[in-house]
Amino acid sequence: MTVPPTDHTTTEPGATPPRGCPHADTGVDGLTRLHGPTAETDPMGLYEKLRAAHGPVAPVLLDGDVRAWLVLGYLENRDVASRSTQFSRDPRTWHGWKSGEIDAATSPLVPMIGWRPDCVCADGEEHQRLRGAVTAGLDQFDHRGIRRHITRFAHQLIDGFCERGEVELVSRFTEHLPMLVLTHLLGMPDESGPRLVHAARDLFKATETSLASNAYVLEALEQLVLMKKSAPGQDIASVLLSHPAGLTDEEVKHHLRLILLAGYETTANLMSNVLRMVVTDPRFRGSLAGGQMTLPEAVEQVLWDEPPLMVCPGRWATGDTSLGGQEIKAGDMLLLGLAAGNVDKAIRPDPSTRVHHNRAHLSFSAGAHECPGQDIGRVIADTGIDILLTRLPDIALAVPEERLTWRSSTWSRHLTALPVTFAPRLPEAHDVTAPLPAPPPPSSAVPAAPQLPPADVAVGRGGPRTTWRARLRRFLRRR
Ligand code: HEM
Fold first, then answer.
1. Is 311 in the pocket of ligand 1 (CB under 6 A)?
2. Domains of the chain, with CATH numbers?
3. How far lies 307's CA from each of 81, 201, 274, in Å?
4. If you count Cβ atoms within 10 Å of the first and of the last residue's Cβ in the chain, which end, N or C, has fewer?
5. Per the record, which residues fall in region Disordered (predicted)?
6. pLDDT of 194-227, one tens digit each?
7. pTM of this prediction?
């Protein structure tokens, strides 16, 4: 995955007609824009219109009216993601670079579809070489170890606002927690945390300081590479440096940036979407509180219904072929419509039916590039939300639901703020530093299953305590 996503505030002046213009949603040859007002306000509605007009694969326009195919069908998405010899992940395959369809120096698409020396832009053996190092870096952490860090950071964040009785959860929690965890796993010293977290988050926002923030993050990663060369530790940077794949320093830096950026925005988005459901949908909250739906199930449901990345760039056809009834030419660009594929009637006739434990959604893509960090994303979301709801089971939306706003792009949409209120509480001073867990033993031995506490009891520093579900149930009974 290529990040950061292009925010529409960065669109070339004049490239998108103003709001209200009757042609705002269509461009050359009457093709539908994936960057017009409708794409921003009602992307799911737009995908359904495209599906009705074109079937499972639709011609669309990106920023600057660049042509691409949007894959809407579930099976067609899986097909494109899995057939890497027919659909390359290397953007240099695209004919648009040569035809002058895009100005590589100025197009806001370049961060998403430009080539970089990382595993996202590679196919075949080169992809396996680079991805092997990445997965070795991610797989060294066992989930209990990661959960300890998430727990510590989550409590610290909640301690920072729990006495006030109100907080804006996106900026103070859902965007902050994944970044704290990821910088820690990469091997960043905890002291560099707050400033780096600030810079890395700013980099996504397309503000006037984004370029400076990008430079700061790259500089910090360069320093990290130097530091880990002389003093390796149990972290992703050290594994990338010592991996037999023999990554150059430049490749290590690019992969550290990739992991940080690919993991941050998506996980933050997922957490915001789950918490929004908790505070806006009484049925969702009731199912959680009543135990009919576990938190991991709730997370999976949101992954089906609101993928953190709605459209995934990109694949490029290596030869002429047909797909979903469309004639695709060599060098054409295809986009994986993950959100559209997840609600394809061919596999989900009634999208309102609960998915329970079904994880066959497209939100982590499929095939050789399927997200290698999905379990880390899930554990950050599950653990962080669990702790928040345990500490503040009475959170309630502080504004009418209609006042919630999103920042949208072709690729995703982000809740900009989730203000909530709750009864003020004292901080719990969770400031224990825990060392990173040791890497798993090199043998293939299956580790012993952890002893789970009974359903409504979690073991914390102060011994057993009731979980959020029991507290939430009590809170709902009182209302
Ligand atoms: C809910 C959270 C997440 C979602 C929804 C998500 C989704 C995705 C998607 C859709 C792709 C693109 C695959 C493709 O091109 O076909 C991807 C790739 C990737 N993700 Fe994630 N991701 C998440 C969390 C993470 C985390 C936490 C990490 C790292 C710790 C991570 C690391 C990566 C990497 C390295 C790739 C590139 C893999 C490759 O090209 O081989 N992701 N992710």
1. no
2. 8-435+451-478 (1.10.630.10)
3. 16, 20, 11
4. C
5. 1-40
6. 777 778 777 766 567 777 888 888 888 999 999 9
7. 0.86
